[in-house]
Amino acid sequence: MPELPEVELAARIVRRAAIGRTITSARVLHPSQRRGLPDEAAASLAGDAIVAVWRRGKHQLLRLKSGRTLHVHFRMTGDWVVLPSRCAPLPSHARVVLRFDDRSAIALDDPRALSNVTLHEPKADPLPRLGPDATSPSFNARWLRERCAGRRVAIKGALLDQRVVAGIGNIHASEALWLARLDPRVVAAGLTPAQYRAVVIGVKRTMALALARQRRYGTDANEPESYFVYGREGEPCRRCRTPVRRILQGARSSYFCPRCQRR
């Protein structure tokens, strides 16, 4: 699932490919996408131009010259593909295609067709309620402690709550908790001040490492050997050599070291 680092890379790709370009056509190629971007809305994009692109958590926002905003959320498997010329073939799972006045295009490629693309009028806020970005200075130990107060949720579940911190998914929550030396099942409200600080430090270091991998390797960055624990069940912990365990939390896999991540 695309998390903050993957979505940041995608936003940078769109930024380079689309800013300053005028849209000549927009095509919706899958019925599921028409729920968010009906054909009439897609047709209204012709003649408009993309003037800014930014990311918030796992969301992308494409600001148009008209003042409208295209909101893009990849969900499980979405990604952008840049088509440098009109004759470039579409990706096999293209769902939405924006063509530009220089004959280039960008295509939303999504094998599971779960991505969302929606068009919003000027001054409308398309984003759900979100906490601070995982990379933001606003995400700190005090913020995390206040948002976890009185909650019986496990610390991993708290990190996956986008209202607590935006951008973290299953992979980087496991990685951050390994760095913080905390079992993912620990109750979030029961942490000490030092443990809240360790979690925040773990999140920020995890994101920094992931963003660096994305810049260096692009879409090939997410291999199990790149991670401390994620996807490494049964392999030795990189700290203490104890075999990594996998458990299910909320139907999602959590990877951790049973020896050096304290319960």
Oligomer: single chain
Strand order of the largest sheet: 1-6-7-5
Class by SSE composition: alpha+beta
Give the H and E element order: HEHHEEEEEEEHHHHEE
Let me know the average pLDDT: 94
Annotation, overall tally of beta strands: 10
Outline type? elongated
The helix content is 25-40%
β-strand percent reads: 15-25%
What gap, in angstroms, lies between the N and C termini?
Answer: 27 Å
Rounded to an integer in angstroms, the radius of gyration calculated over CA atoms is: 20 Å
Low-confidence stretches: none
- What about the largest sheet? 4 strands, antiparallel
In DSSP terms (H or I, runs of 4 or more residues), the helix count works out at: 7
Topology summary:
Blueprint: H1 4-18, E1 23-28, H2 31-34, H3 39-43, E2 50-56, E3 59-64, E4 69-73, E5 79-83, E6 94-100, E7 105-109, E8 116-120, H4 141-148, H5 155-160, H6 170-180, H7 193-217, E9 245-249, E10 252-256
Keywords:
263 residues, alpha+beta, four-stranded antiparallel β-sheet, 7 helices, 28% helix
In short:
The chain is an alpha+beta fold and 263 residues long.
What does this structure look like?
The protein contains 7 helices and 10 strands. It is an alpha+beta fold and 263 residues long. It has helices at residues 4-18, 31-34, 39-43, 141-148, 155-160, 170-180, 193-217; strands at 23-28, 50-56, 59-64, 69-73, 79-83, 94-100, 105-109, 116-120, 245-249, 252-256. The strands form 3 sheets. The protein has a 4-stranded antiparallel β-sheet with strand order 1-6-7-5. Strands 2-3-4-8 form a 4-stranded antiparallel β-sheet, with helices on one face. A two-stranded antiparallel ribbon has the order 9-10. The model has no long low-confidence stretch (mean pLDDT 94).
